[in-house]
Amino acid sequence: MLQTELGTYEPEGSGPPPSVHRLDGAIVVELHGDIDLVAYQRTVSLMDAVASGPEPLIVVDLSRVTFFDCSGISLLMRTRRRVRGRGGHLRVVCTDPLTLRILRLTRLTSVLSPVPSLGAALRGPFDEA
């Protein structure tokens, strides 16, 4: 069980749960390991809670992700839609070549605007499409 400022999150499977913390007025969600259908099912309620919070900026850090498939894309886009729906911004931290390739192939790099570091994600600009 993971206790965060947003409540309790209890993963149903193995693997490290996401880390959630506040940093410079943003909520940072660090995802770990494989982001596949199982991870989606374990993580979606946490991401929904984060996305519906009052913070203007949500950062999803994929730096420790080892596998990323269409379930990960679905998770990011669902979170983005919810954050944008309340007037907030979503930033994605990613440097993994395979994950970036998936984002390019799905034409989502312009929508998700991945940045190489947490510092870059916190700096902005936040003029997302």
How are the strands of the largest sheet arranged?
A: 3-4-5-6
| Share in helix | 25-40%
Q: Structural class of the secondary structure composition?
A: alpha/beta
* Strand coverage percent: 25-35%
> What radius of gyration results from the CA coordinates?
13 Å
Low-confidence stretches: none
Tell me about the largest β-sheet. 4 strands, mixed
Count of DSSP H/I helices: 5
SSE order, as H and E? EEEEHEHEHHH
Number of strands: 6
Give average pLDDT, whole number.
Answer: 89
Task: Explain what the structure shows.
The chain contains 5 helices and 6 strands; from the N terminus they run ββββαβαβααα. The chain has helices at about 35-50, 70-85, 95-105, 110, 120-125; strands spanning about 1-5, 5-10, 20-25, 25-35, 55-70, 90-95. Strands 3-4-5-6 form a 4-stranded mixed β-sheet. It has a two-stranded antiparallel ribbon with strand order 1-2. The protein is globular, with a radius of gyration of 13 Å.
Keywords:
129 residues, alpha/beta, four-stranded mixed beta sheet, two-stranded antiparallel sheet, 6 strands, globular
